[in-house]
């Protein structure tokens, strides 16, 4: 019973982190539309952002949150935002360098991997 309960909590944590990543990408897409003239408006990032935030809220109501998840979720949000920013700047080089965005994304991903136990774990 305990192992099954642990699997459900682990799946819920992953769902929360993926939704935070999606919310970060959608938030950056909307911000890029407002600040970059090369980007045209699309309704889909707005719809995805609303659905991701709603699903995050429902997940918060359904399952209790462990200690590490809020901070790791915030890091995943920033990974999504900086990752999308790096992608756009690779697509539109005149918008600026994507070096900072890539470095922040990679450092945050390493930190998330360490906090979730994927890096430095001994079996």
Question: Can you put this structure into words, describing what you see?
Answer:
It is a single chain. 28% of the residues are buried. The chain contains four helices and no strands. Helix content is 76%, strand content 0%. It has one domain. It has 123 residues and is an all-alpha fold. This is YijD family membrane protein.
| Mean pLDDT level | 88
Number of strands: 0
Radius of gyration: 16 Å
Low-pLDDT stretches: none
What is the domain tally? 1
Note the run of SSEs as H and E.
HHHH
First and last CA, distance: 23 Å
- What can be said about the biggest beta sheet? none
Any idea what the shape is? Answer: flat
Q: Assign the structural class, choosing from mainly alpha, mainly beta, alpha/beta, alpha+beta, or little secondary structure.
A: mainly alpha
Alpha plus pi helix count? 4
Binned, the helix content reads: over 70%
Summarize this structure briefly:
This protein is mainly α and 123 residues long.
Keywords:
DUF1422, mainly alpha, transmembrane helix, flat, membrane, transmembrane
Give a topology summary.
Elements: H1 2-35, H2 44-62, H3 69-91, H4 99-116
Helix pairs in contact: 1-2, 1-3, 3-4
Pfam family, one: DUF1422
Keywords: Membrane, Transmembrane, Transmembrane helix
InterPro entries: DUF1422 (IPR009867)
